[in-house]
Specification:
- The complex is a heterodimer.
- Chain A is an alpha+beta fold.
- Chain A starts with 6 loop residues before the first strand and ends with a helix.
- Chain B has five helices and three strands, in the order ααβααββα.
- In chain B, strands 1-3-2 form a three-stranded antiparallel sheet.
- In chain B, α1 runs antiparallel to α4.
- At the A-B interface, β2, α1, α2, α3 and α4 of A face α5 of B.
Chain lengths: 165, 119
Amino acid sequence: MNPKGLQISTPTDTTIVLTRTFNAPRRLVWEAMFTPDKMRRWMLPPPGLTMTLCEVEARVGGVLRLAWKNEEADPFMTLEGVFTEVIPHERIVHTETMATGSGQTIGTQVETHEFAEKGGVTTMRITQAYDSKDARDGALASGMDQGMEACYKQLDELVTQRTSP
Amino acid sequence: MVVDRSPRLDLVFHALAHPARRAIIRQLSGGERNLSELASPLRMTFPAATKHVRVLERANLVRRRVAGRQHLCRLRAAPLRDAMLWTEQFRRNWEARFEALDSLLEEMKSEEKSRSRRH
């Protein structure tokens, strides 16, 4: 496996933990993660959506505001949160609430980012804590409707290997 | 994002949530087994094993056929594939984002380098 490889785990019923290493000092990873014009570069929207708003204030009490539109609705989806804990280049915690364009809440979670640097390589760990197992499972399932066909063949092979005698 | 609840996937995940049932699936990945073959390595009574197999049948993970006095169980792969697919797209979305972040970081690093050369 790629040494940078993304690791995803579900240590409890209501959390998802993502871990990934980056070939850059954590100061830069932090800047890339929490500066609006840089965030727009990596926060790839789901197919068919365009990001229309990206406000990030990485300080305690600062807001996080994102919005996306599609052909039918502007906004189609919004994300709003507040930063509750900030230790620069080390640890940052924010709340987030996803909502439909009409304002109906889809889900809320608390997201913690932790950064550790060793020899110019940064390991970032994101912990997403949801209100319930259903909400967590819903987040894991999101995007299931996208690109299904694309990875079907690969999965087919995997499953065949795993289950044939 | 609007997420469709899938009762079928709920059954699959419920079925996979018990260690005994995962052990049964592992055994069946080696081929068809009868119920007592499944029960004995788990140190389980026949009725207890039957109960677990029923849960797996309801999730469509196992198919049972009766041959004489034997109940033969066989694994069905399709629902497992769906269960993998369920989390696979979440992973793919994040992988794509982190790959974009990789190239952004490379840019930022070379910008810093050229800036320090200028000074």
